[in-house]
């Protein structure tokens, strides 16, 4: 069974209190959030997913990419580990065919980075193939690697043996520092069955052809 997944977010008392503002007390503006491919995000105060990559499109907007099943257009984005920053972006495009979404970020609230955990992204490249080893950085399982099986069904998706679970949706899959795919699903059981994700070359092509947010994307 193919499982496309996003973890369900449950607010804790500690997080709720971090948003509280005392009456009559002046507070400084929250610091911008450091975000990049591999960062955890909360969408619509409900789902937890992972950013695939962050950069600029041909309009100069600061945009990011994540899995399409993480949210529809209009969904708000809050950094998982810097929730005090509040809403830092909004999904402006969600594509069900390739299961990707484009996030438009507020540049005043986000510091973009090309390195998160064990993954650095310098550019977007062609799909990976057997027997390469690909690695991913997800908000749930962190940095895991596995052999690449390739596009087994000729569906513009890459199959690998990297361990993924709920919340890793959208995580970047890299060969070295080249972003080749995103995490979208797993087959059977998490971290046992293969991971499946849309090839980034297909995402880039679709964004460029359809135009609008994300077209001409260049990673930080």
Task: Outline the secondary-structure elements.
Blueprint: E1 2-4, E2 7-8, H1 13-18, E3 33-35, E4 40-43, E5 47-50, E6 53-56, E7 62-67, E8 76-79, E9 89-95, E10 100-105, E11 110-112, E12 115-116, E13 119-120, E14 123-124, E15 133-138, E16 142-150, E17 157-160, E18 172-175, E19 178-182, E20 185-187, E21 195-198, H2 200-210, E22 218-219
Parallel strand pairs: 3-11, 14-19
Antiparallel strand pairs: 1-20, 2-5, 4-5, 4-8, 6-7, 6-22, 7-10, 8-9, 9-10, 12-13, 15-16, 15-18, 16-17, 17-21, 18-19, 20-21
Describe the structure.
With 220 residues, the protein is mainly beta. It folds into two domains: 2-114, Trypsin-like serine proteases (Thrombin, subunit H), CATH 2.40.10.10; 116-204, Trypsin-like serine proteases (Thrombin, subunit H, Beta Barrel). Helix content is 8%, strand content 40%. It is built from two helices and 22 strands. The chain has helices at residues 13-18, 200-210, and strands spanning 2-4, 7-8, 33-35, 40-43, 47-50, 53-56, 62-67, 76-79, 89-95, 100-105, 110-112, 115-116, 119-120, 123-124, 133-138, 142-150, 157-160, 172-175, 178-182, 185-187, 195-198, 218-219. It has a nine-stranded mixed beta sheet. Strand 16 and strand 17 (157-160) form a beta hairpin. The protein is globular.
Computed over alpha carbons, the radius of gyration is 17 Å
State the shape: globular
**Helix amount, in percent?**
under 10%
Counted up, domains total 2
The name of the CATH architecture of the largest domain is Beta Barrel
The counted number of beta strands is 22
Tell me the structural class: mainly beta
